[in-house]
Amino acid sequence: MSETQEQKDEAARAAADAEAHAAAEEALEAAEEAEDDEEGTETEEAESEDVSDSGAEEDDPAAQIADLRDQLLRAMAETENVRRRAAREREEAAKYGIANFARDVLGIADNLRRAIDSAPPETVAEDNAKALFEGVEMTERELLAALERHGVKRLEPLGEKFDHNLHQAMFEVPDPSAAPGTVVQVMQPGYVLAERLLRPAMVGIAKAPAEAENEAAGEAETGEEKVEAETAAEDSEPTAEGAPGANVDTQA
To answer: CB 3.0–4.6 Å: which of 46, 70, 182, 228 could bond 178 by disulfide?
Structure first.
């Protein structure tokens, strides 16, 4: 009997502990649910505020139209710039794409002209050499014509005013018959491709007459000064002892 009573008491205590534990768990779950509800409420309020702000912006058609218009204008401007840049690059490639090749061919044209200029007149008059000389001249004409068809033109500035954009001055010569700064001699012809210079013409230009006279006067003055210096040096040489006109010591 006593054991049975003890068992009942233990069972009652275990049941009471289980109920207390269950009540504690329920209270903890209720507290967590309350915290979750509060956080959810705050999140919903924040979301509702964002939605209300965005909705206010979306509801403004004037702002949307202004934004879309700005985007459209920017896209059109960028497209036009790209189109113009591509057209300019295509045009430059068509004009100046052969610049390097043309620059290399200029040496051939120079050699043909040197061969023509170096032929003596008496040799050219001979029957055997005349055909060869005419063939070289014809080759030069065909080469220059082919270059000109592709936009390469030869510069022959003889008698023209010196232009530093197209010519390279190698020397100056006094020439009373030409105005100062005029090209009076062409050492090597120049070439241009469209509006771009391939090679400047090497030229000699006429010097101003006043400059030539000043240089001549300066050379004359230098010669006179040199003569006077030589004369002064001769006069300053000491007279030899015993020579006529020298001081003679008469004392015994």
So the answer is: 182
| Residue 94 CB burial class (10 angstroms; 0-12, 13-18, ≥19) | exposed
pLDDT tens, 39-49? 666 666 656 55
Residues paired with residue 197 on neighbouring β-strands, in sequence order: 192
Backbone angles phi, psi at 189, to 5 degrees: -70, 155
Structure tokens at 109: 């044209």
Residues paired with residue 203 on neighbouring β-strands, in sequence order: 169, 186
Place of tokens 């209300």: 52
Amino acid at 61: P
- Counting every residue, how long is the chain? 252
- Residue 74, Cβ density class (10 Å: 0-12 exposed, 13-18 middle, ≥19 buried): exposed
Query: What is this structure's pTM?
Result: 0.53
- The whole-angstrom separation of Cα 244 and Cα 139 is 83
Q: Coil, strand, or helix at residue 167?
A: strand
pLDDT in tens, 230-245: 665 555 554 444 444 4
Q: Which helix (H) or strand (E) holds 191?
A: strand 190-193
Tell me the β-bridge partners of 174.
207
Class of domain 153-231: mainly beta
